[in-house]
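Archive record
______________

***
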Amino acid sequence: PEKPVLYVYGAKKNFGAQKTYLMLDSWGLQKNNFGPEKIAAMEHIDGIFCNDAFAASIVHIALPEYPEDRIHAFVMPGIDQLEVERADVYREETRNKLGIPQDAFAVLYLGDVSSDYLDMGIENANVKTFEKTRVVLEQLAQSHPERNITLIVRPHPRARGTIDAEILLHGTQVEESGTSLKYKNGSSPLSINEVSYASDVIVSIFSTENLVAPVRGRRSIYLAYDGLGEVVLKQVYGEGPSAEIEHVNGVSKISSEQDLHVTLERISEEPPLQPRDAQDATKKIIDTILAG
């Protein structure tokens, strides 16, 4: 497991292990695993398993001297929680529940908690980011009156009762004049799987769903507006890894409203991604260990 990682660092010395492997099942802060004091105490690790090429790049930046051929980018076994086998069923059923036509272009906005970013010097991060995004989607809807364009909003569970949630839900509660953009409330009791599969693209400041989306068969966009999400990504990942995000297949990173408009136009015309079959992830890991 990722949390008690010190067991891995001392497994050979403390437990007589013949081989040790580290499994990183997230794209989290690698300083928690690879801080200088931990690297200094680290035993030889025979291999590191992680989710994808982006996660592998984060590990390589944290451990530049570690052999890249021992960093294995596999979709992790926990992927079964995404229920990718039910993608089509969830899409149809959830769109019916929300009154979204099956041929509509739907964008899922995953809300955030602005106070989480105050120590980064950013005020009202979620409020400002959502307002910029909402305006772009309204412009997109106005430029394509022949299409049904829908914005599904899902406030963060911790934002309940705050302006962060209220601003997302406002459009679902009142008739917005002068726009053909449709607003839908994707909050609980709908699950994250239901609303993710109901959408065509998932957008947020900083959510794991941005990186999980391609596994689901959905595209995603990091809302890295200047002075907002851009600051978050650089502070969380650092300059190098945050730049690598744009190399992840199915994932985009935008820096301005114009950039978002162009990206959504492109995505809306592209064929959908196919959900990934990750059933052989465990087999790949076992085969790699036994062959090592």
